[in-house]
Write a structure and sequence with these properties.
Blueprint (H helix, E strand, L loop, with lengths): L6 E3 L2 E3 L6 E6 L4 E7 L3 H16 L8 H17 L1 H12 L3 H23 L5 E3 L6 E9 L2 E5 L5 H15 L2 E5 L6 H12 L7 E3 L4 H10 L5 E5 L2 H11 L5 E5 L5 E4 L7 H16 L11 E5 L3 H12 L20 H16 L3 E4 L20 E4 L6 H4 L6 E7 L2 H9 L6 E5 L3 H10 L4 E4 L18 E2 L4 H6 L2 E9 L11
Parallel strand pairs: 7-8, 7-10, 8-9, 10-11, 12-13, 12-17, 13-16, 15-16, 17-18
Antiparallel strand pairs: 1-2, 3-4, 5-6, 6-20, 11-19, 14-15
Helix pairs in contact: 1-7, 2-4, 2-5, 2-6, 3-4, 4-5, 7-8, 9-10
Length: 500
Amino acid sequence: MAAVETIHVDGVWRAAASGAQREVLDPADAKTLAVVAEGGAEDTDAAIAAARRAFDQGPWPGTPVAERAALLRRVADLLQRDRETIALIESRDTGKTLEEGRVDVDDVTNAFRYFADLVAGESAGRVVDAGTPDVHSVVVHEPVGVCAMITPWNYPLLQASWKVAPALAAGNTFVIKPSEVTPLSTVHLVKLLAEAGLPAGVANVVTGAGDPVGARLSEHPDVDLVSFTGGLVSGTKVAQAAAPTVKKVALELGGKNPNVVFADACATAEGFDTAVDQALNAAFIHSGQVCSAGARLIIEESVRERFVAELARRAEKIKLGRGTEDGVECGPLVSAQQLDKTEAYVASALEEGALLRCGGKQPEPSEVRPATGYFYLPTVLDQCHREMRVVREETFGPILTVESFQTEDEAVTLANDTEYGLAGAVWSADTARARRVAARLRHGTVWINDYHPYLPQAEWGGFGKSGVGRELGPAGLDEYRETKHVYENLRPSPVRWFAG
C-alpha cells in the first residue's frame, strides 16, 4: 500500500523526511486501514519553523477579526458538506458507530461557528477608567503566537476542533500532532482549512508518535503555547518538557467520573428507566473510551440491587460490531493495547473482591462481526470500593464499577474521593438536594439528571489531576490570547521626580 503524504508544512503535503511510515489499523478487524507518514524531529522542526514564519511575517495575525470569523464559518460549511465522508473516516479509524461519527462532525461544526461568532462579536478592547480625562487606557487581546496541539485517539476530530477553532479565531498559527492511532480525520480537517483559504504556514500537521513529535513540540523554544489532551502520565511529561521555556500550557488529562444516583430518582417507573438508561449511556458509549465517562456508579443502598440487576440485564443486550453496520450500538476498543488494559483492570478488580454482574470477557466469535477485532463485552462490577485500582484509575474501557452510600454526605465524599475532577452527575427528584450536591462536587462539569451533553459556549476542563486551563467558552478563546494594557497619556508633561 502506498504511503499517504500526511505531513503538512507551509502549505505542502509531504512524506516524512526519514521516509518512515506507519500502518493505521481498523480496530474492528485489526486490518490495515491506511498508511501514513511517520514524522520525526526533523519534520516537527520544519513545521514549527513554518508556523513561526507565518506568525511573525505572514498576514494571518493581522487579518481583521471579521475575515477570520468568515473563514471559520467557511470551514463549518465544508465540514457539513463532507459530513458523511468524515463520519465514515472517524468510525473506521476509532471504532465508534457511524452515528457517533456524524454527531462528532456536527459538534465540530458548532465549535467553529461558536468561536467565529464569539470573536466577531467582541469590541476593540476594554476601556479602563484611569480617573483622569488626560489618559486613554485600554486592555486588548493579542494572539499567543505559535501553538502546538497534541490530540487524543478517542475523539480526534472533536478534540482538534476545540483547539484549532479558538486558536485561529485569536489569530495564531499552529502545528498539530494527532494521535498516531487515529490521525485520519485531522488530516482531512487541515485539507478543509486550506480549501477555505487559510494562508500557507498557518496550519501545519505532523503525523507521528508522541516521542519524538509530541516531545519536540513541547520543548521547542519557538512554540509559545502547548495544548495537550490525553492521559495523566503523558500530560505530566508535556508540562515538564515545556517548563524550561516557560511557555503557556493547557492540559486536559481525563477523569474518573462519578454518577451519583439517589433513591428518589428511581421512585417512579419512568424515573427508574431514565436513570438506568443514562447510566448505560454514561459508562458505555464509545466503549467507555470517553474522558468524561460515568465509570463510577455511586448509588443509594436502598435501590442498589434492583438498579444494578436491571443495568446488567440491559448491558448484556448491547449489540457489538463494526460501527458502520446497521443496528450496532457499540464498536470495538481502539487497539490491542487498550483491549489488554481492559482485561487487566477487570482481572485486578475480581482479585480485589469485586462481583462480576455481566461481561468481563471478550465476546465469542459467533457473537460479534467481524470476530477478529478488539471487542470487549460491557462489564458491570458490583461491590467495589475505593482501594481498588479499577475505581481509582481511568480505565478507558467498557467497565462500570458500583459503589453505594446511605447518606448525602457519604455520597459527596465518595464522589470527591478521586485525584481527578473532570465531570460528574447527580440524579435526584429533589431539586434542592440535587443542586446542593452539585455545588459540593469538585468537578469541572456537573450534570443534574443528565449525563454527557456539553455546550460549545460553556467551558470544559477539570479540577485536580484532570488538568489545567479550559477549552470551549470564552475562557477557551482566552487560552490562545495574551492580554495587553495600553496606557496613553494624552497630555504628557515633565514628572520632575529628579530635581536636576
